[in-house]
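seq:
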Amino acid sequence: MKKLTEKELQIMSVLWEHEEVSMRELIEMVPDFKSVSTLVTFVRRLEVHGMITHRELGRRFYLYSAAVTREKYLQTMQIESLKDCFNGSYIDLVSTLVREEKISVEEIKKLIEKIGQSQNIQP
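struct:
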């Protein structure tokens, strides 16, 4: 999944808030675009990347909707950030959190217990 630009996030935010919208509604709800053709280009690009879908109601009349939930997008971006910042290492992430006192050793022990319970493993 690609990281969305600020403009793409504006479009996706509208689609996440509404089940389906027409291009006319999208134009009204996302006024930051310099022209309608620019907005259309962004919508097409998001569709190519699998972020949105459309259904045709009539000739040249489409309703657009998000193909990816906000939660799924955020989860994917969090994982990508982890890869970028910590070379994909959860150990490095946790070590940083401990070093900067963002998480305590006691909290880590509780986390290990939860993981063990979910996988039927004893610590």
